[in-house]
Amino acid sequence: MTTQILLVEDDETIAMGIAFALEKEGYHICRVSNIKEAKGYLNEEIALIILDLNLPDGIGYSFCEYVRTKSEVPIIFLTVRDEEEDMIRGLDMGADDYITKPFRMRILLSRIQAVLRRTQKEETHILECKNIKLDKNQGRVYKQDEELILSKSEYKLLLLLMENKECTISRERILDYLWGIDGTFVNDNTLTVMVKRLREKIEEPTEKLIQTIRGVGYRLEA
């Protein structure tokens, strides 16, 4: 699968040059020029974000903070702002690297490869939340090391929640996800029943893991 990179850069000449060089290396580039467009491209398929600081509708720091409330996708700042405090601020808020303009394309490529190698190495097939452990390779779920028997839909729902731990997932997104996975229609009431059954299997009587966000959806909390 081609690695997708979100490039947020309002200078068309620079953006075209970066996109051309990265596409030659086999990357797929989603190129946008402002924060509003960038938010529309933010999804689980984006493997890395290259982010300018000075954008027409705001500053890159604000988009970085927005991303960090939703995802751990790696971010590389690429900007003319070369002051030490700017670099420290960017790294402190969760950026993985900070490159100043002008830059050499080979250096940018090297930094991108280094960040992707590091983050991909950190990826694990084991997901955990309190005493619940999900092994994606085996397709098994354990509670205090005792295997739980889940239906296919319950497993897919738990996987979605654990991959987005601490994030609220709308009912609509969950329904779309289950529709796409199973190829069968899952209505709103069925989802409520499914969540109830999953809670009975993974939660303790005194501890809730799946939180209902009224009018929105659900969130798995550690």
UniProtKB/TrEMBL annotation:
Modified residues (4-aspartylphosphate): D52
Gene Ontology terms for molecular function: phosphorelay response regulator activity; transcription cis-regulatory region binding
DNA-binding region(s) from the entry: 124-222
Gene Ontology process terms (BP): regulation of DNA-templated transcription
Keyword annotations from UniProtKB, A to Z: DNA-binding, Phosphoprotein, Transcription, Transcription regulation
One Pfam family in the UniProt entry: Response_reg
Residues annotated as domain Response regulatory: 4-116
Cellular component GO terms held in the UniProt record: cytosol; protein-DNA complex
Source taxon at top rank: Bacteria
InterPro entries, per database record: CheY-like_superfamily, OmpR/PhoB-type_DNA-bd, Sig_transdc_resp-reg_C-effctor, Sig_transdc_resp-reg_receiver, WalR-like, WH-like_DNA-bd_sf
Domain annotation OmpR/PhoB-type: ranges: 124-222
UniProt entry tagged with the keyword DNA-binding: yes
The protein's role, per its UniProt record: May play the central regulatory role in sporulation. It may be an element of the effector pathway responsible for the activation of sporulation genes in response to nutritional stress. Spo0A may act in concert with spo0H (a sigma factor) to control the expression of some genes that are critical to the sporulation process.
PANTHER family: ALKALINE PHOSPHATASE SYNTHESIS TRANSCRIPTIONAL REGULATORY PROTEIN PHOP, REGULATOR OF RPOS
Protein name: Stage 0 sporulation protein A homolog
UniProt source species: Holtiella tumoricola
